[in-house]
Amino acid sequence: MTALALSSPVAVVGTGTMGQGIAQVALVAGHPVRLYDALPGRAREAAEAIGARLDRLVAKDRLTSAERDAARARLTPAEEIEELADCALVVEAVLERLDIKQKLFRRLEDIVSDDCLLATNTSSLSVTAIGGALRNASRFLGLHFFNPAPLLPLVEVVSGFATDVASATRAYETARAWGKTPVACADTPGFIVNRIARPFYAEALAVHESQGADPATIDAVLRECGGFKMGAFELTDLIGQDVNESVTHSVWQAFFQDVRFTPSLAQRRLVESGRLGRKSGHGWYDYADGAERPEPHTADAARPPAYVVAEGGLGPAAELLPLIREAGILVREEEEDHGTRLVLPSGGQLVLADGQTSIEFRDVVYFDLALDYRKATRIALSASQDTAPQTLTEAVGLFQALGKDVSVIGDVPGMIVARAVARIIDLAYDAVAKGVATEEDIDTAMRLGVNYPLGPFEWNRGLPRDWAYDLLDELHTRDPGGRYAPSLALYRHSYANEKREGTP
Asked: Which residue in the list 92, 156, 203, 394 is annotated as catalytic?
């Protein structure tokens, strides 16, 4: 099944930001495009706005004048919906209300030909439920673009319960012909990105709600240690707190209030206060002119230890050992069957976050998971009131000697990066097991849709086979409400690996 021919007209219904962006994508790809909006005059205004954006592309040498003029000639505002009758694809981008979308597609079904693809750009509603209002839902599917549509490459091609393979394949190939990177997924709450990304926000909010760290520190750790482009608090301020919370609430409700997707009370209060982020001038951060951005907590300079004893090779943090040696600190290595820790001169231990807490052990400091310990510029440490001050000082001094800023947070099991990454990996395995998408498409979606440094399966392949499962299992022991219970899919993945390696 091939993509739609460039001679085939494409219609976009709804001329807000997303509608205009989708129309621009189809237009620049070479299709004749019809714009329709129920409000009189809106389609013509949208066509003018798209024309202005094409002018800016010419000014930036991303489009020639001839290409712009040809694109403008192919763009037609439609005064009546009946003018879409000869279109081969209609993409809807109207208000996120099920009744409005169903009514629109019932009307379109009476206007367009039987082989016209009908697509919704919904991000929060069920594709199956929207298509359920149609006489023939086999040609109906989701084409979920990401904002801004002309810039972001990802398109989730969502098959509803009744969508036939031919329709989904044609839509997939058309999106690819438009220069996008399509991923195929089943109709599930949040599709791929909005389902699997929930822990990135939720765990940052949970650490904040438990008084483990402030937003500026959590964001800095996610960026400078975890390798994420933005922290959870600054990203939700950019998205809009109301929008982000609405998506979280929608996914939670669609999963019958599954505790893994429970919304945050702290975010609810922020929305209720009107602090919606950048668009309102204040969210987690103040965006008023002259407002100072809060600085992350950074520990004062401390003397590094003269040596460390490495027990068990440190697992995912093994790269620390050559870094410590390069800093001129002696490393003595001792084989341990189950140990993965550094012993400091004071006798205290430095342990990679594993879902346990410092208060459970005598003189332990935890350190967070990093995307790349060599490239990381900040490390988070976690200690309890029972941790000896000298142990914490030596731990801080050690990482500072490696050129890292150090943020000391509260006694938070799983810390910041580790717990978020483990939960993202778990949801990804669960999604594959339930037929939502392939591992490859999930990795692609998370890299391109939310700009993660690695997809969840890519990340997991660089970790010990049971790392995510074991960390979540420990978290579940300490917080047994179900939020951290590892999925059966993740358990099966770990158990299958053990069997292949001959472990009893």
From this structure: 156
